[in-house]
Structures are given as C-alpha cells and as structure tokens.
Amino acid sequence: MPQGHYRVGRLSQEVQREVNDILLKRVRDPRVQDVTVTGVEVTGDLQQATVYYSIYSDLASDGKKAQAGLEASTGLIRRELGARLSTYKIPELFFERDKSVQYGDHIEALLRGLNKD
C-alpha cells in the first residue's frame, strides 16, 4: 500500500476517535448530545475531512438540530483537534449524517415482512 493511503487512513481513525471524545467531553451544546461519529473520510491532500455521524432519533427535526449544533461547534472541534493531533494542518471539517443505520433498519424490516408471509 502506498505511503499516502496509510497516512490518510491513520488520520481518519485519529480524527474519528478525537471528534467522538470532543463531542462527549467538551461540546456543551444539547443539540449534539446524542451524536455518534460513525466514520471519517479525509481527502488525499489531508485538507478536508467529512465526518459521518448518526443520532438515535429518526425525526427530521432532530436531524436538523444535530446538524446545526455540529456546524456551530466546528470551530471548537477544530481547535481541540489542533491541540490533540500532531499534524501540520488540521483538515477543514464537514458533517454529514450517516444514513447506513436507517437503511439497515429498513432492510431488516423488509426481511421481517418476508418471513411473516
């Protein structure tokens, strides 16, 4: 595996671990209290990171509140990452809701419906 892929993967894991920790311990915004980071994708140049998250609620209003809370907390999260990571530049963060959990629940419900018939 080329050196760049290893570095991107390692940085993705570190960002995921640290953002989860920052959300639990440092961010006091009630809109993000039920947010769990499920994955991070960092671009090859390490300049941008897309943080995928999930929340317990399926309500659209809760999803919008969580997104707004994360966007409002981006500056704090980047500052904390700067103190915790040993990289030259901290990637710009973008938050996107992870739909895979909801999709998995939908597939599971469809399978249960098949088993009833």
UniProtKB/TrEMBL annotation:
The gene is rbfA. One of several proteins that assist in the late maturation steps of the functional core of the 30S ribosomal subunit. Associates with free 30S ribosomal subunits (but not with 30S subunits that are part of 70S ribosomes or polysomes). Required for efficient processing of 16S rRNA. May interact with the 5'-terminal helix region of 16S rRNA. Gene3D superfamilies: 3.30.300.20. Belongs to the RbfA family. Coiled coil: none annotated. This is Ribosome-binding factor A. Its main location: cytoplasm. HAMAP family: RbfA. Keywords: Cytoplasm, Ribosome biogenesis. Monomer. Binds 30S ribosomal subunits, but not 50S ribosomal subunits or 70S ribosomes. The keyword GTP-binding does not apply. It is found in: Cytoplasm.
